[in-house]
């Protein structure tokens, strides 16, 4: 096994534990813990998406992405229920960035669940305009898709 692959496998194993509240204690809402959770979410998600070129089957990759997205949503819901939406100054940007990406990749009903949080973060200057516009476009596109 090449050194890079071994590091990736070990990192993914560590990331999974870092994503789970049960590994680190039930409700650690400290800035450091949330920063680490945000980094883990981002890294794991982006690692999977960047490996798209290495996958043989498009359908198996799409299923892997859906599974990853559902797991990300579960983790974000745990964080939000125990610590609130990550947009105040006590939170580091990585967790808000992860939350925004999770909501962007989610189905309409999940986007709708966090619509007010996304809008408030944008209005408070925590989410850049171009990212918020992308969210609004995706939200409206998926809403229109379900209406037909």
Order of helices and strands: HHHHHHHH
Share of β-strand residues: under 5%
**Total strand segments:** 0
Sheet with the most strands, sense and barrel status:
none
Shape: globular
Which structural class best describes the helix and strand composition?
A: mainly alpha
End-to-end distance? 50 Å
Number of domains: 1
What's the pLDDT, averaged over the residues? Answer: 75
Bin the helical content: over 70%
- Structure annotation, total helices: 8
Q: Any chance you could write out the topology, listing elements then pairs?
A:
Blueprint: H1 3-19, H2 21-24, H3 31-50, H4 58-83, H5 93-104, H6 108-113, H7 115-123, H8 129-147
Helix pairs in contact: 1-3, 3-4, 3-5
Signal peptide: 1-26
Protein name: Lipoprotein
Organism: Pseudoduganella ginsengisoli
Please tell me about this protein's structure.
It comes from Pseudoduganella ginsengisoli. Keywords: Signal. This protein has 148 residues and is mainly alpha-helical. It has one domain (3-106). The chain has 8 helices and no strands. The protein has helices spanning 3-19, 21-24, 31-50, 58-83, 93-104, 108-113, 115-123, 129-147. α1 crosses α3 (31-50), α3 (31-50) runs antiparallel to α4 (58-83) and α3 crosses α5. It is globular, with a radius of gyration of 16 Å.
Key words describing this protein structure:
0% strand; disordered N terminus; 76% helix; 148 residues; mainly alpha
Please provide a brief summary of the model:
This is Lipoprotein. This protein is mainly α and 148 residues long.
